[in-house]
Amino acid sequence: MLRRVVAPLLVALIPFFWVCDATNRSSLATVGRDQGIFQYVAWAVLRGDVDYRDIRDVNGPLVHLLHVVMLVLGGGDEHRFHVLELLATGISFAVAGACLPGLVSKRTPSPVTRLAWALAGWVVLSGQYHLYTYWNQAQRESFCDWFLLPSLALQLLPPARTKQRASLRIVGIAALSTITWFGKPSFLPFTVAQLIVLLLERDDVLSRSARFGRFVLGGLLGAVVPMAYLLRYGDAATFIRISLLDVPQVYRFIWAKSVPEIFGEEGPLGDATLGVACAVLVTSLVAVRELPKRALVVPLGIGAGLCNVIAQHKGFGYHFHPLTALTALGWLMVVVMIAERFEGAPRKRPLGRYFSLGIATALGLFVASNMKNSPHTRNVWILGGGETAERRADPEYFATFRNHDFFPWEMRQAAQYIASHTSPDARVQVYGMDPYLLFLAERKSATPYIYAYDLNADAALDGGWKNRPTDAQRARIRGIRHDHEHDMLRKLKANPPEVFVFIDRSPLITFQDAWEDFRYACPDSAAWVGANYHPARAFGEFHVWIHDGSKNPDVEAPYATPWSEGATDGTL
């Protein structure tokens, strides 16, 4: 028994402290922009708004559903949100590790052996996860990994010996894989890769046609939960229209990058290089029959991870989650293979066992060494500045997360002001990219347009280096933007919100001053707002305007006189 757990314990225990420390520190961070967006979407849905109709978003229903679940479990508190997210992420990592034993050994692994490799899986995959900043954790790709990694892990298990167990295994693989499509459709290549490997297996008790049929059944079952959410809480027709029309016609041009641009940076280039190296090694081991054919799901998955990054044309850091997770899983799989090859070596010929222990030690040291690059490990201040709920409410705490277009403390000041100066059922319209303000203020959006890029088309019109829209596409983009603005204006006139908020220096606006940008991008709407609202308070980049008919027409200098048509910076 000891021989079978020494290798995984070496892998796990060498970097264990550093991984635990980074996990703790990451749980003390605030939430970034994207996490805040989905917190608002989930909150609004739980209070009666119809997803995609009342809240316009381009992301799949799985992401919204997961945030609804976390809110129900108390995830409205930022620390608890991180704890829940890290718990689910850690479970998926442990499941992946637990399924690796038995990869080459003919002996059925004991529960203790699987537990040891589960610990190693959690440590190794958590090690790569904590190389991401707080901004890039708890993202759509990492949420999809909750399902993708267990799906791939099930495929690495030895084929079942009975038709019933084989059917259940394949249905589970397909269901867990297909559900990721409803987070991001770019996860489709993973499912295709898994199906290819599944059909390549020869030692399965089911025929290829039977395996294909079970896979299709599993895929349909995987779609049930997100589709049920969409039909119950969302507008399916609007979701389909956004996904099939607006995304390819508008959103794909925003922040667009070519492949050379994406992989030309040091971080993505390093991740891609390690991934390709791991994929080549595992494929070679399968070719020389050191690993079974089902192990091909990892290198093909790495290839799908690269496709996932390329297909999105943006190269954001969090797009690399599946790639780096599968690369880490691939290295761990190689260690499992070597450990199982030599676990039965006689004591008189211990060289193989020494080699396996050396490889396990090397992987543990590799993970430990990488932790010095973790932004969480480097964030020494967070241990004191964020250790209690009281300290996580201080301006100094939020100042450490402020950047060129994200202002968490000012957002909370504005939210507190709105909450105390509007009725509980008030609607608020935000022009910017931070609907988390609405979540913090506990107020719903007046219109579905919670993103500035739906109202200012310049980012889409500009496109990227090798992904610029044609003249015809530009005309469509302008037409869609025009429709958005006039739909918003119609809704604003029909039910004027109590408050309008302009967020300066928001991403994807043309001018740093949000009011100036609104007047430039939405002149008809700006004329109506200027005639019916007045600036009340400014909290840094957050400018709160109150309706002229408000029972609390609060005004603070420099907003002491009616708004001038010529002013664009809040002064007269």
Automatic annotation (TrEMBL):
The keyword Metal-binding does not apply. The chain crosses the membrane at residues 170-200, 212-231, 269-288, 295-313, 319-339, 351-369. Coiled coil: none annotated. Keywords: Membrane, Transmembrane, Transmembrane helix. This is Glycosyltransferase RgtA/B/C/D-like domain-containing protein. The lineage of its organism: Bacteria, Pseudomonadati, Myxococcota, Polyangia, Polyangiales.
